[in-house]
Amino acid sequence: MPSTQYLPFAQRSLFIFALVYPLVLFPGAPFMPLAQWQNSGYDSAELFQLLPKICFLFLAGLIGFMVSRPIPWREPLVWLLGGHLGLVVLGAMLSGDDFTFNFLGPPRRMDGIFYHLGLVLLGIFVYSTLRRDPQRGLRIALLGLFWSGVVQAGVALLQRLGVDVFSPLVRYFPYNAPVGTIGQPGMLAGLLLGSFLAALVLYRLSEGKPRWGILLGVLVIAAAIGVSTNRSALIALVVGLVGLNLSQRSLGLFGASILAMLALLGGKYLLPNPHGFARGYGDTLTFKIRLQIWQIALEEIQKNPRLLLTGGGPDAFKLAMLRNPPVDRLMEAYRQELNWPSNATISKVQVVQDPDAPLRTKQLWVTFSTYGEYKNHTVVYDFLLDKAHNFLLDRLLDYGLLSVLIWILLYLFPLWRDIPHKTSSFGGLAWILVGLFVYYLAWFPVVQVEPLHVLLIAVTWALLVPERISIRSVRTVAAKAG
């Protein structure tokens, strides 16, 4: 029987992590002058946002791991997460990259070995905690994700209204869209998506009790998803909603879903927009760029089949671009991504790197015969592409085909287990993971958001036990949230 000595502490820690992790940052911008940064956006993001988060993740995962003993080593989730960590280390060792980049992760991302170690420790901690007391653990996890989403939604809605208390702490110039405390609207949408679906499951499990507070939170989060204007999150949200409603067949859940969609549209189209944020669902440019990036990624895999076996490490895609630049493909992508003038005509492209300089200093010097109103105009570009913007392609490039299979299992196996049951015995949690999986088909995991998604994976897998928990027993405990 698993020890319960530290169970109350572990459960409180689970709630605190879900709530606090997106808020972890170092408010350095007021104290460090802009002049000391060569690249204020990237450098400040690493020091003020990403580094504090990966340190907090590792510390939380390590403490949680220590109080979760005995660890259920023989359980499938632990093996899958451990296998992923082994593939991360193997891919990094064979990448040929510097140790610093392998351990801390590449610039702008910081998703190296250190981050993945914290991620795996967190997943095992959450799983072990839920296995000891599934009913109370489920309620606490859903509440933590619910309040985390409400806080982020509140910050994003204030940013939409012109009140931004976040960027002055971590950035030297305002964001061009509502980003919560995450730093990018698409990443914010991914976090809100998980919180939104978790909140709906919490709402479903609270049937029979007052739950107006939960419904209000659901609507606030939905409005913020609309404000983020991320098409991948919108499609994933619809898939998750359809699956939840088909699996639960609850009139109350259906009504909440309809209200949530109305709140989403209201957040997008009815809220005041004093800063003129111009993102729109009808813009197809982003998808066109994604298609170009996916084509480049697939061509790199064809050039280097070893990637199928071991991957190329945490920065595999960027290293492939640097080592053997597909110049023509990059120019096609840059034309769309950087919105070149329609008359931009390239006359020459040079790949430039100073002797003995690090590989990442390599640049593209592009000479245009015409560029808008300019003639014989030269522009220097960095190598901008570092992720394939597709969860499966990025995992394949970084850590190989086995890593792809691991993550497909982590996200989709719970649904396969749930299909034979006409009504999900744990409130439709599997459909949260399906929604996240759909979102990731046009995105990639990031330090700011993925730990909360792994938390959801661990919670769902912890309820895939032989003695399945009845929805009535879970609902009795979860209803206290209302």
TrEMBL record:
<feature type="transmembrane region" description="Helical">
    <location>
        <begin position="396"/>
        <end position="416"/>
    </location>
</feature>
<feature type="transmembrane region" description="Helical">
    <location>
        <begin position="215"/>
        <end position="239"/>
    </location>
</feature>
<keyword id="KW-0812">Transmembrane</keyword>
<feature type="transmembrane region" description="Helical">
    <location>
        <begin position="113"/>
        <end position="130"/>
    </location>
</feature>
<feature type="transmembrane region" description="Helical">
    <location>
        <begin position="428"/>
        <end position="447"/>
    </location>
</feature>
<feature type="transmembrane region" description="Helical">
    <location>
        <begin position="182"/>
        <end position="203"/>
    </location>
</feature>
<dbReference type="InterPro" id="IPR051533">
    <property type="entry name" value="WaaL-like"/>
</dbReference>
<feature type="transmembrane region" description="Helical">
    <location>
        <begin position="12"/>
        <end position="35"/>
    </location>
</feature>
<feature type="transmembrane region" description="Helical">
    <location>
        <begin position="251"/>
        <end position="271"/>
    </location>
</feature>
<keyword id="KW-1133">Transmembrane helix</keyword>
<keyword id="KW-0472">Membrane</keyword>
<feature type="transmembrane region" description="Helical">
    <location>
        <begin position="77"/>
        <end position="93"/>
    </location>
</feature>
<feature type="transmembrane region" description="Helical">
    <location>
        <begin position="142"/>
        <end position="162"/>
    </location>
</feature>
<protein>
    <recommendedName>
        <fullName>O-Antigen ligase</fullName>
    </recommendedName>
</protein>
<feature type="transmembrane region" description="Helical">
    <location>
        <begin position="47"/>
        <end position="65"/>
    </location>
</feature>
